[in-house]
Write a structure and sequence with these properties.
homooctamer, alpha/beta, five-stranded parallel beta sheet, 6 helices, 5 strands
């Protein structure tokens, strides 16, 4: 079994790379995917189909183009990691968690202790809460082991 | 057809009551449900099963008790209204939106123009964005009409 | 059993009313629903949420508001009647047929012999092809009978 | 991830080939499928099982044989491209769009500005509207990128 | 709970009536449905949509009209009773059993000991095998009891 | 909303009656169902279809007749209460918990502290652990409240 | 795409081999599976788990062991071929057809003209009726073609 | 076809290894998976995310981490073997059986005659009952054969 892992949420720190690197170093049987994490490219995803004056529709068009990718990846992953950082609204991360919960896809949240309370519903529907990429790697190692 | 509508999100303003009252005044064939909106009762939902020292587990236990209710209501509603106010993280509202999206349940978001950008993924998977309870009522009136 | 029947397609002739009236006269245990069939109201459904300059987005917004209603009704009906007239593109009717086919909801098409060939895929996934509202009524009477 | 893309609709121009060629040139990790696009072969698909006098049943038989193929391919694709040209009824394309919508399969429509209005329901349930094969290729490139 | 029971199979003896009468006498909370059991009416179901020369297509058309009814009833029943008599092929009864098995709908078979062997796959996927209508009634009484 | 609650597990104490009585006293909008709880009747459920010499097949036949009832009730309930007492294997209760977990049906376990460890997988997939019928009633009251 | 084809029904003629050989000769991208077709081995499948005195239970046990195989294969195939010969009851073939119909798996029936009438429900839910293995091969060739 | 087999239940005897070894010796096309079977590692699975004082929460956290693995494996297996030994509560094995039953995944139970009665519900929903690893291997050999 190769575990397929979707990495959702925060794009301003290198948590994705830390997890991917550590799993590779340990030769874990895990593959990774995520949304396009280049912020500007992501915001401009809909511009490929023509410019928009109205900022709501520009966002709308881009979000839908991004959804082509994320919907496909989330629906086919085995496990999702949902990361909440200390900045921004990050509603898309909570949205992904809800999406996984409804599909029955197991997910692990990754966030600091400071935001336990506002994330209680998100954590309650997940299967583990980690506070560091290293912990996530430990869990993936355990889950992907020969048993 | 009686439309069953789930009201998710912000609990600090009276948007729920405004929608319910206006629908009743107009005799719309709509019924409403929502999470327990008494903040303290909701946070203490798990305490009925014994106190917890650790705040993570207290939150966890309460969130799970609340999920018994919200999961049942969201899965049986026809339409959800997802409200984002101008305060707090409100990750539970975005979680509910993701849950609805995965189930294919239509939802309407209700929020100000100021937060269009961080809500673009949530809006993209919804079927309408309203900026006032009155607009939500207009939509419900249209949707529940005899046609 | 009260059969719940969704009436999809053409809005420029009175085929819906003919079917509804005949079923009522014969006291059949059938209830009917459909999209909002007032053409102007339907095209303007999104305007309740604010005007749009761009005609694509006006259409988009209205189509999504209408989808809140049609999605709910189609997903809960027992049988759909899909009507194709002799004018206009009527892609929404074919879209509804495909939607029903994927859900496994039985549907009856209602159209003239002249358009058999372009409708062959739509007819192939349906369970009956009628050429008049009277025939549809006969089928509904048979299906809803005590047996 | 190799994206599996189903190409639905118009068979009288070379839009399929344009998309396939451009994706190959750019080495995108995308595979393509579609209905049998040889018009005569498709219309005669049922003749392999014996000739029919009645044109309705000839069409019916052929459409069902074609459905063996298209149902299997649509249900297993990740993304569909739904193309509407400027001729013919093309109800099968709209049918495929409805089928994808019910399954939750993301689709991109490909059509001219002239037919925005009659396609508004089809576009509303899709995730992007492109006006040229080149735009579709750009989207596929973005969606299939390493992120 | 009112159990909804679908009665499938043999139409040449009065087993349906025996079960219905006995359940009514005992005031069981059970409702019944079945295909149209008037043989001639059932074979002619498609004739309402125009006559057919070819007997295959006449049968096909009628079988599809009947499927509008049976599909709806089978998919909404709680329990099916599948009756095999000692005459005819009765492939439709076995078809209904397979349909129920795939849906996870519990069914009880009703047949003589003489045909145990050819029905072994059908019995294996069912939850009970009865040899008389009276036994079926006993089971329904037990299943619908207050417990 | 009337909550439909399935009561699974131990049949040797009066925990069911305690919950039902307390909910009735408090006029909660809750309805209850359960397997046939008369031990002897349950073990003999298959005897209605003829006696068996072999005890494996007698048990098998009875268990399947009981499954007609329990499968229907579990699949239609909103919430299950899974009770583990201090005697017997009670594998059927754990089986019901796994069944609910796979369906996504929320359940509450009811058991003493002494058996936390062997029930950890069952508790982990549930939404609450209660130690007394009174606690279950409190939760049901909260969940079924007007909010 | 390699089409996965399940061959159900009659085991007394070589129709399976004819189809498999012809597809291999033509290098079609098709793989085949079926139930164990050795009649005696199939009837004795349950004997591996101990002998039974009672012939009903012997059949039952064997049918269930066979179901481990057939259920897995039918649920994972793309297309089923359902063959009815001129002998025996063949209820298992009709059962498989009903199973496929409920799953939405396309199937082709293979039978003589003589049994059109008793197979009308089975044919109505299928996508093609062939009268010879050669016709089945032609259809598979068409369906598996590059298009 | 490579059958994917999940081995659930008892971890104190070498039944898993016996089955795996015998299948390998006979070159069966079968792959195996199971929960982490190192008792201590399994109980400590949650400790990777921080220690817990409260034994309920320690168990809970570990059970959830284990569920990431078991949920993924059970949902993707073709067949499960559910083993009950003569010691301990083994509620997790019965839980897995219920989970499989709800998913429609075929399972084989493996247990002694002494515990037939308390396992009757679990056996009734399974497709075979074996009393030795050798019997399980025989069944797997039969199921995975070329037919």
């Amino acid at each position: 079994m190769t575990l397929s892992v979707y990495l959702s949420g925060e794009i301003h720190t290198d948590w994705r790379q830390q997890i991917i690197d550590a799993c590779q170093e340990q030769n874990l049987s895990v593959s990774f995917s995520s949304a396009v994490t280049d912020h500007q490219a992501s915001d401009a995803a809909g511009d490929m189909l023509g410019a928009e004056d109205n900022s709501f529709w520009r966002d709308h068009k881009s979000a839908k183009v991004n959804a082509i990718r994320t919907k496909t990846l989330i629906e086919s992953c085995d496990i999702a990691i949902i990361r909440f950082g200390d900045k921004y609204k990050q509603w898309n991360a909570a949205f992904d968690a809800g999406y996984c919960a409804a599909l029955g896809t197991p997910y692990i949240t990754l966030h600091d202790e400071a935001i336990i309370h506002p994330l209680k519903e998100v954590d309650a529907a997940g299967l583990a809460w980690a506070t560091s990429p290293a912990q996530v790697v430990e869990i993936l190692k355990y889950v992907a082991s020969q048993g």
